[in-house]
Give the backbone structure.
Amino acid sequence: MKIGVIGLGYIGSVTAAVLADQGHQVTGIDVDSNKVKIYSSGEIPIFEPGLKNLIVKNRERISFSTSYDTIRESDVIFIAVPTPTSNGSIDLSFVEQAVDSILEVNKNSIIVMKSTVIPGTARSIGKKKGIHIVSNPEFTSEGTAIQDTVKPDRIIIGGSKKQACNVVTDLWEFTGSPIVVTTNENAELIKYASNSFLATKISFINEIANLCEVIPGSDVDIVAKGMGLDKRIGKRFLRAGIGYGGSCFPKDTQAFMDFARSKGTPIKIVEAASEVNDNRISHAIDLVLKSVNSARSQDNKIAILGLSFKDNTDDVRESQSLKLIKELVKLGFQIFAYDPVVKTSISGVKQCASIEECVSLANTVVVATEWDKFRDIVSLVKEKKVVDVRRILDPGEFPIFFAVGFGNAEN
Ligand code: UDX
């Protein structure tokens, strides 16, 4: 098929590459000419494992452009543009612009909404513009986006036109994943309810972590392991830490809460999860201060390992690590930072070229992102105080150790 993808962010670019790999002729559109230029040259402007290879491998079937003219002939067009939150509510202007631009050049394609939109959006935009929109929310995590797209746990397709839904169903059949075909509203709700549930699961374990910290002898990692073995609970998204960040959970929970409130049925549990998450930074600062003030003399030099919002990505949107750094700078600490892929200039922070350099310059070392390579720092930080706000280190290995959810005597 001829496929168009509007928006070349983490989702759009991966969708385009995966569908090209399935033999479709794909055109990716973005308003950012620089991004288009990079993709067209066989490079990628983001860090996403496997994406570059997939695009290069399929270069005969995939092209990139800023012009909607190139999707004049497309049979199916995916919309994967951002839906930011502004003043707590979802901003649909990019989605509406995309629909208008598609309709200027192509009135016959099947339009598929990948962007996350509040329930009722696909139907109401469709009604306003006189079209039918198929909802096909994504459940793709950055860092594992390709495997999540090729082999997702499920595919959700929403719409009221059977034929259009069938075409989209056929497109994803190759995944072999269960496919649920339903209404637009259910599809939109499934996306928000899933992300909000996962965010709540993280906040739940973070609350248990707080409790563990005041119970000497307890450790949230073990508690989570014990809980997660219960198949009804499951072990994933039970990792306590500095709270969730990224481009989805904070934004989607906010939009969902706002939407539910506007309907007169606030979702209290998500409101609580969000509040718990907001408090994670001050909690991490408390741990850093405990470390700084513990043993030996006070110190004011802190090494921060990890800047991205999670491992295996260069994305710093809503990064809890960056929020932590900004607060520590305000408190007057000298910060040295290292990240395997993120290069960013934060005022008051010296970015280091290696873990070794970063660690050597500070007295307290904070593990702020769960990159795998930070698991092997034992020999580097022997003489240092260690604060693990991601729970990737073994508490027994470090003489002075503070961590989320670790009830050591010194805490
Ligand atoms: C998320 C959803 O997982 C995905 O289905 C959706 O389509 C987009 O949003 P993503 O934002 O890429 O994906 O990252 P994810 O792996 O879900 O992590 C989100 C945040 O939660 C990160 O900051 C991560 O570090 C944190 N997290 C995750 C925890 O603190 N503990 C956990 O156990 C899991």
User: Anything to note?
Assistant: Residues 138-142, 195, 198, 202, 237-239, 241, 244-246, 248-249, 309-310 surround uridine-5'-diphosphate-xylopyranose (CB under 6 Å). The CA atoms of residues 6 and 29 lie 5 Å apart. The chain has a mean pLDDT of 96.
